[in-house]
């Protein structure tokens, strides 16, 4: 039977001085899956994403991406792995001094130094069409609404055709209608582009649209794992309290 795992995390531990933020985490993510990561603030959700992409070293354990142990790779080898990973940061992280076009061109030129300008132009145009923002191509980030910035950030993340997408609070700061639109865009792109995704979120609207499976980080460990409806309908007092607050906030 073929191994469908794209990410394997084995006994991962991450500390900040004497504080353990991730404690012996073991987790598999399978191709085509959308995994949602829940947890209260300070439980290591964003740290987990940064460890997966190699932006943050960890103290012990292993992270394998496509069967390659990222802790044993050279910088050059790690950068090759990163070419197949997209990362949507919490605030979209657009370059304020660049137009939308230039923001999308940047990763293409960095990852594919021999790409022609014609190929770049075609890729930028096609990717903006995917997020329905073709008309924004020459706008500056300051001219965009919060939802538009999220769409452009998403476009920049997928323009290199990653097989794995990491989302850090993709709907933070958005109203419920825009949250639903961005979440539906995420799941539609995942299906259209055959991507796997890991999304850190506290947003139930987003999670209900995109999640195939969910985990909950508590006390530095994976305390709960399963289908989203199993977590939200759980009789566990902690989960009931957490999700009731999230529902009220929506």
Automatic annotation (TrEMBL):
<keyword id="KW-0813">Transport</keyword>
<dbReference type="InterPro" id="IPR027417">
    <property type="entry name" value="P-loop_NTPase"/>
</dbReference>
<dbReference type="InterPro" id="IPR017871">
    <property type="entry name" value="ABC_transporter-like_CS"/>
</dbReference>
<protein>
    <submittedName>
        <fullName>ABC transporter ATP-binding protein</fullName>
    </submittedName>
</protein>
<keyword id="KW-0547">Nucleotide-binding</keyword>
<dbReference type="InterPro" id="IPR003439">
    <property type="entry name" value="ABC_transporter-like_ATP-bd"/>
</dbReference>
<dbReference type="Pfam" id="PF00005">
    <property type="entry name" value="ABC_tran"/>
</dbReference>
<dbReference type="GO" id="GO:0005524">
    <property type="term" value="F:ATP binding"/>
</dbReference>
<dbReference type="InterPro" id="IPR003593">
    <property type="entry name" value="AAA+_ATPase"/>
</dbReference>
<dbReference type="GO" id="GO:0016887">
    <property type="term" value="F:ATP hydrolysis activity"/>
</dbReference>
<keyword id="KW-0067">ATP-binding</keyword>
<feature type="domain" description="ABC transporter">
    <location>
        <begin position="7"/>
        <end position="244"/>
    </location>
</feature>
């Amino acid at each position: 039977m073929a191994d469908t795992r794209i990410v394997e995390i084995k006994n991962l531990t991450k500390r900040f001085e004497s504080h353990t933020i991730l404690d012996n985490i073991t987790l598999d993510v399978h191709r085509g899956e959308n995994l949602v990561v829940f947890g209260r603030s300070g439980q290591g959700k964003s740290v987990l994403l940064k460890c997966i992409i190699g932006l943050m070293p960890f103290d012990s354990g292993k992270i394998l991406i496509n069967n390659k142990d990222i802790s044993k790779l050279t910088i050059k080898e790690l950068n090759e792995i990163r070419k197949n990973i997209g990362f949507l940061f919490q605030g979209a992280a657009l370059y304020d001094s660049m137009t939308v076009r230039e923001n999308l061109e940047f990763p293409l030129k960095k990852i594919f130094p021999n790409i022609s300008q014609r190929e770049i132009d075609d890729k930028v145009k096609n990717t903006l069409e995917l997020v329905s923002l073709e008309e924004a191509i020459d706008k500056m980030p300051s001219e965009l609404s919060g939802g538009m910035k999220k769409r452009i950030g998403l476009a920049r993340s997928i323009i290199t055709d990653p097989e794995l997408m990491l989302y850090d609070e993709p709907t933070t700061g958005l109203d419920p209608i825009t949250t639903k639109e961005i979440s539906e865009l995420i799941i539609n792109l995942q299906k259209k582009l055959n991507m796997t995704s890991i999304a850190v979120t506290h947003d139930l609207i987003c999670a209900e649209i995109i999640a195939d499976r969910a985990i909950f980080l508590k006390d530095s460990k994976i305390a709960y794992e399963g289908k989203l409806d199993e977590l939200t309908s759980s009789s566990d007092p902690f989960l009931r309290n957490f999700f009731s607050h999230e529902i009220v906030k929506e």
